[in-house]
Amino acid sequence: MKKGIIFDMDGTLWDTTPLLLEVWNRVMQGYEETKGKFLSLEEIRGLMGKTMYEIGEAVMPGVETERQEEIFNGCIDAEDEALIQQGGSLYPGLEDTLKLLQKNYHLYIVSNGQENYAHNFIEFYHFEKYFEDEETFGRTLKSKAENIKLLVERNGLDEAVYVGDTRQDETSAEEAGVKFIYASYGFGEALKPDETIGGLGELPRALERIGF
User: Fold this and answer.
1) Which in 14, 163, 185, 186 has the greatest CB count within 10 A?
2) Could you give the CA distance from residue 133 to residue 52 in angstroms, rounded to a whole number?
3) What is the pLDDT of residue 73?
4) Within 10 A of 96 (CB to CB), how many other CB atoms are there?
5) pLDDT by residue (tens digit) across 149-166?
6) What residues contact residue 77 under an 8 Å CB cut-off, 6+ apart?
């Protein structure tokens, strides 16, 4: 039986919010619609895990959708460049946990980030040896639930678990028909996860407790 663990990124594997705060606020000053607008770190964290359309409406209400996309893409291009050069802050124990999990499971990423978001993360940290496949909203323009299903089917998984940190992650896992483990150290909340972890090092035991 082929079992897969699928990870969310922001608030689950790493924290990029301090870098995004600097980059997005700088880029937005170059557009008339967002000039003089500065997001707080709390606001940035509240946007994590959302799609570009949801972020556009939250940050630029009243701005035409096409213009929202243009400004957002400007932020993302600068963000990609910064992340390629600097990376983010990995949560403690990440690589040790991936090494351990890889012995019994196949590892993947599904993120609501833009097309190259997961790829850049994997490449920056040389994590190709751990993650077998990844999918993003920016590539498919599909919901997280649909992308989880897509990845499960593409990789021929018999059973899968999604690890994430928000209620949206939880509902996406439910819709995709996979179990959900809540990363309580991240940015959001969950209602009734199958298991909860307070750090990545707790994940192997959590998987055992749900019989995975």
Assistant:
1) 163
2) 22
3) 87
4) 11
5) 999 999 999 999 999 999
6) none
Please classify residue 4 by burial: count the beta carbons closer than 10 Å to its beta carbon, then call 0-12 exposed, 13-18 middle and 19+ buried: buried
Residue 111 and residue 172: Cα distance in Å, rounded?
11
How far apart, in Å, are the Cα atoms of 160 and each of 4, 16, 87, 108?
Answer: 5, 26, 28, 10
pLDDT in tens, 141-153: 999 999 999 999 9
**Hey, what are 47's tokens?**
């946007």
**What pLDDT is stored for residue 76 in this prediction?**
84
SS (H, E, C) the chain: CCEEEEECCECCCEECHHHHHHHHHHHHCCCCCCCCCCCCHHHHHHHCCCCHHHHHHHHCCCCCHHHHHHHHHHHHHHHHHHHHHHCCEECCCHHHHHHHHCCCCEEEEEECCCCCHHHHHHHHCCHHHCEEEEEEHHHHCCCHHHHHHHHHHHCCCCEEEEEECCHHHHHHHHHHCCEEEEECCCCCCCCCCCEEECCHHHHHHHHHHCCC
With a CB cutoff of 8 Å and minimum separation 6, the contacts of 198 are: 184, 185
- In this prediction, residues 13-29 reach a mean pLDDT of 93
Do 188 and 167 form a contact (C-beta atoms < 8 A)?
A: yes
Output the six-digit token pair for 207: 């998987």
Which tops the pLDDT comparison, 183 or 83? 183
